[in-house]
Structures are given as C-alpha cells and as structure tokens.
C-alpha cells in the first residue's frame, strides 16, 4: 500500500512511484501478448493507442489487484478502466512523445484520470524514459497545445514551449516491473530512443466513476483524432459502483481472461 507521504507526493507532485514490482510471469505474459499484437498489426510497432480493442487478454494485467489497491488510495473506491495503451519505443528508432498533458482529447466529464505507467523494460535516460514536470498538474487546467505533424512521434499534440520549463523536469527511471501513477493534468513527455535497448511501457487509465466517459461527445468531437475510435471504447468496471449512473460498465471475471 501507499504510505501517507506517497499519497501526499501524488497530490503535490502529480505522480508517485510505489514500492511495487510486477511478477515476472505476468511481465512475460504481457510481452507475449504485445509480440502477438505487433505481429498482427505492425503499424503499432512504436505505439498502440488502445490495446484492449485488439486483445482483451491484456485486461488481466490492467486489473491486477495490487495495482487497483494503489489507484483506490488515490482516486477513491469507485473507478473504472477506460483504456490501456502501449508505448513500445523500440531500440534504435523509438519515437519520442512530445511534452503534453493527457486530457486534451479525452471525452471524460468532469475530466479526471489516474494513469498507471508500467515499465516492461528498464526505463533509463538512454532509452527515453518518461519525464514529468513536478507539480504542473496543480491548477487543474489544460494548457495550450499545438499540432506537431512530425511522423516520428507517438502523439501529435504538443505543449507550447511557453507553457512549461524543461529545466524543471524529472526523469522517471524505473526498473522492469515497476510502475508510476500520474494525474491527468501533469505535464510529461519522453525523448526518442536511439539506444540498443527497447523501452516498452504499458499504460492503464482509470477514471473515478463520478466522471462520465461520454461516447456521444467522443463521436461528435474526438473520433477523428485517434486511429482507434474513442466512441468504441468499452469501460471496464474496476472497483465499487458507477457513481454517475451514466457509464455503462463491462464486468469481467477472471475466467474471461483465459
Ligand atoms: O511512454 C511514453 O513515452 C509516453 C507515455 C504517456 O504519454 C502517458 O503515459 O500518458
């Protein structure tokens, strides 16, 4: 579990790294599922925005009870998993992720999400680990972004340089199996990977069910911004109940994973 200081770190800094390491057998299973995904869909070699739309077997790992315990401590008892993506950043030509905040194009109202970022490889400065601007989530506002059309990027929304100071960034150096959890408003990004080691990271996005994942809004406004349509996303029950009474939650049991 997170201690009081770690919970405070999440509130003050916008992220926390708990004392956790995923079991090696689970990591091997994730690697295997990811290899399968890339074999079927080579276009996702660097980045797949929504892995559950292609293979729900990933769910078993997104709903890891120990991970859910951390999320519960940060966003309360009632929450759902609304997405999982894979930033694979392969060796030698791993794409950068520009500085950004997550919630720009997410059809979640009110906007809220805690992202769990799981290191599948050791993440270092050499292979393009994630970087955070500590405390940049605090005013809970989306800052100004512009569209960057460079094809060698995982995402195209990029924060205006005037919105942050890169000198304030901290590198998220993680060992394989470690996780970090970050707030939806936190400014973050990562550099390209020209090293000989891949830097695979899997995200799991959890929203409190006091918020609504608005499929209609997604259809109207956000679908064309992402290759995998937001309006097609299933929202998976994680813990508690749907406080909003407006989300349609999928309930999965362990037998659905095999
Ligand atoms: O892993 C990366 O390089 C970027 C991850 C990211 O943007 C996120 O977790 O929201």
Blueprint (SSEs and pairs):
Elements: H1 4-13, E1 15-16, H2 24-40, E2 47-48, H3 59-62, H4 65-75, E3 79-87, E4 97-100, E5 108-109, E6 114-119, E7 130-133, E8 145-147, E9 157-159, E10 169-171, E11 179-183, E12 188-190, E13 201-208, E14 212-213, H5 215-222, E15 235-239, E16 249-250
Parallel strand pairs: 15-16
Antiparallel strand pairs: 1-11, 2-3, 3-13, 3-15, 4-12, 5-14, 6-11, 6-13, 7-10, 7-12, 8-9
2-oxoglutaric acid binds at residues 87, 97, 102, 115, 117, 130, 188, 190, 201, 203.
Question: How would you describe this structure to a colleague?
Answer:
- There is one protein chain.
- With 258 residues, the protein is an alpha+beta fold.
- It has one domain: q2cbj1_9rhob like domain (Jelly Rolls), CATH 2.60.120.
- 19% of the residues lie in helices and 24% in strands.
- Strands 1, 2, 3, 6, 11, 13, 15 and 16 form an eight-stranded mixed sheet that branches. Strands 4-12-7-10 form a four-stranded antiparallel sheet, with no helix packed on it.
- The longest helix is centred in the N-terminal third of the chain and has 17 residues, at 24-40.
- It is globular and about 45 Å long.
- The two termini are 28 Å apart.
